[in-house]
Design a protein that fits this description.
Structural class: alpha/beta
Oligomer: single chain
Distance between the termini: 9 Å
Helix content: 25-40%
Largest sheet: 5 strands, mixed, barrel
Radius of gyration: 16 Å
Number of strands: 10
Shape: globular
Length: 225
Amino acid sequence: MIIGIMGAMPDEVDQLCARLENVTKEAYAGVEYHCGTLNGKQVVVCCAGMGKANAASTVQVLCTKYGIDRLIFSGIAGNMTSKIGIGDVCVGETVVYHDAELSMIAQSAPFQTEYHGDPALVAAALDACTACGVKAIAGKIATGDTFVGDAETKKAIEEKCHPDCVEMEGAAIGQAAALNGIPFLIIRAISDKADNSANMDYPAFEKLAIEHSVRLTQGMLKRMA
């Protein structure tokens, strides 16, 4: 089994890359892919870059060129719920676009308006959170090509799709994974409140959120058969 592990920013993947054994590296279509073993599992780790287009194209490369069997995306997000706070984790049971015409997207394969994290991967992630002492929920993640940092935008997204957190890649990853029949999971550690305080919270808590997402990714790998 080959597991693809993605992040959107270098800080989200560098710590995992540093832990790889038997590493080979290859640059392809603007992304560097690190192949090796982590916690006894064969993995391909990469930094896709931010946004939906970068995310989807990288998933396709992981599927077509590297033949992955499972996909984990680990990163940070803005909070949209009172159930968790900064440093806590939202495990993506469902991912959906907040900035797209869903009925039109669903007219093409995979004919879905939302995408669902693999149940076994969701369970492994929640178990890893418990073992690490990190508060987590299985929830809905909303995706769009903008950083959400004001109360008005946050409210509009809440009214449209009622998510637990908001970010810039998850639904595109879910859509590309579904097209390729690859079980996937999005893990998001909360770095800010996705409101007018986001530009202050994000730099202050980014490091903590990334540390949690890295620990949980490693914890998941230990639980995957």
